[in-house]
Write a structure and sequence with these properties.
single chain; about 325 residues; mainly alpha; Alpha-lytic protease prodomain-like; Alpha-Beta Plaits; 2 domains; 3 strands; about 10% strand; elongated
C-alpha cells in the first residue's frame, strides 16, 4: 500500500503544479483545449485529496459500528473520484469543445501553450512512470500475468484510479498539443475544439470502466481464481479434513480479505484435535493468501451431518403429511 500512496502523492503534486499554469495559458491564448486541460488538472488535484482521505479513514480500524473495519472507504472514494474527475471533467471538456467549434479563427501567439504543455508533459510522464512502477509491483505481488490482467483483477482501486488518471493525463497533453498546433498553423478553431472533445470523451469512457470495477468491489467482490484455488488447497491438504462443504470470500479492502468456510472433519477426531487442525488451516490460508486476515472456519463431523440429514427428512415427512394438503 505504500507504493499506492506514493503514486497518489506524486499525481497530486504534478496536477497542482501545472493547473494554474494551464489556466494562465488559456486566459492568454483562448485555446479551449487548454481550458479542458485546466479542468482536468484542477479536478485531478482535488481528487487525489479524496483518495488520501480514503486512505486515512480506512485506517480507523474496527469499531462497534464497523466490526470489520473501514477498508472499503478506499473503494467508495475511488468511485467518487471516477464520477467527479472523469464524469464531470469529461463532460465539461466536451461541452467547451462543442461550443468552440464555431469560434473565431486562431491567430494568437501560442508559445505559452507549448511551454506549459511541455512542462505538463514532463510532470505527467513522471507521474505515469510512478504509477506504472506501482502497477508492476502489484502485478508481481499478486502474480498477475500482465498489466491488463492487473487492471482487471487488482483490488487496489486507488492505485488503478491514480494510474488511469496519469495515463489519461499524458494522452490528453499530447492531444492538446496537437490541437493547438493545427489551429495555430491553419487558423481553423475546429482542431483545437476537436482536441477538447477527444479529451472529454476519453475521460468519460475511462470513467465508465473504473466505475464498473469500483462498483463490483463496493458490492463485495471475492478473491481471484488463483487465490481461491490456493485457499481450497490449504484447506483440503490439512490432515483430518474430509470435505470442504462451502467457501466464500470477500474483499474488505485492498489488503483485507474475509474468508468463511464450512469444513467437514473426520468423525474420529477429538474436539481438541479439530481445534488444532483449524489453527493449521488458518495458518496455511494466510501463507497462500497473505491478505486473508479474517478467517472463519465452521467445523462439522460426519455425525453432525447425519443428524442434520435426519432432521431434514423428518421435516419433509411432516410437511407431506400436513392435513392442509388435502383441502
Amino acid at each position: 500500500m505504500v507504493s499506492t500512496r506514493v503514486v497518489v502523492l506524486v499525481s497530486f503534486g504534478a496536477s497542482l503544479a501545472i493547473a494554474v499554469a494551464k489556466f494562465v495559458a488559456y486566459l492568454t491564448t483562448g485555446n479551449v483545449s487548454m481550458l479542458s486541460q485546466t479542468y482536468y488538472s484542477v479536478s485531478d488535484a482535488a481528487n487525489q485529496v479524496l483518495l488520501l482521505l480514503g486512505f486515512r479513514l480506512s485506517e480507523a480500524g474496527e469499531s462497534r459500528k464497523h466490526p470489520f473495519g473501514r477498508g472499503k472507504e478506499q473503494y467508495f472514494f475511488a468511485f467518487v473520484v471516477t464520477v467527479l474527475l472523469f464524469g464531470i471533467a469529461g463532460f465539461a471538456s466536451v461541452r467547451e469543445g462543442y461550443a468552440a467549434l464555431d469560434g473565431p479563427a486562431g491567430g494568437t501567439n501560442v508559445t505559452i501553450n507549448y511551454v506549459v504543455l511541455g512542462v505538463a508533459l514532463v510532470f505527467e510522464s513522471y507521474a505515469f512512470y510512478t504509477s506504472y512502477h506501482g502497477l508492476q509491483t502489484e502485478r508481481e505481488a499478486a502474480g498477475f500475468t500482465s498489466l491488463t490482467a492487473t487492471f482487471r483483477h487488482s483490488k487496489d482501486a486507488p492505485l488503478l484510479t491514480a494510474a488511469t488518471e496519469n495515463i489519461v493525463a499524458v494522452i490528453g497533453v499530447v492531444v492538446a498539443i496537437l490541437g493547438v498546433y493545427l489551429t495555430s498553423q491553419t487558423g481553423d478553431p475546429v482542431y483545437d475544439a476537436t482536441a477538447s472533445i477527444v479529451i472529454g470523451l476519453l475521460l468519460m469512457a475511462l470513467a465508465l470502466a473504473l466505475a464498473w470495477e469500483n462498483r463490483s468491489l463496493i458490492v463485495g467482490e471475492g478473491v481471484t481464481r488463483t487465490e481461491h484455488r490456493a485457499i481450497v488447497d490449504a484447506i483440503e491438504s490439512a490432515d483430518g479434513v474430509a470435505e470442504l462443504l462451502d467457501l466464500r470470500t470477500m474483499h474488505l479492502g485492498p489488503d483485507s480479505v474475509l474468508v468463511a468456510c464450512d469444513v467437514r472433519f473426520d468423525p474420529d477426531l477429538e474436539t481438541a484435535t479439530i481445534e488444532q487442525t483449524v489453527d493449521v488451516i488458518e495458518a496455511r490460508i494466510q501463507d497462500g493468501v497473505p491478505t486473508a486476515d479474517r478467517i472463519y472456519v465452521e467445523a462439522e463431523t460426519e455425525l453432525q451431518t447425519e443428524t442434520e440429514a435426519e432432521a431434514k427428512t423428518e421435516t419433509e415427512t411432516e410437511t407431506e403429511s400436513d392435513p392442509k394438503d388435502g383441502e
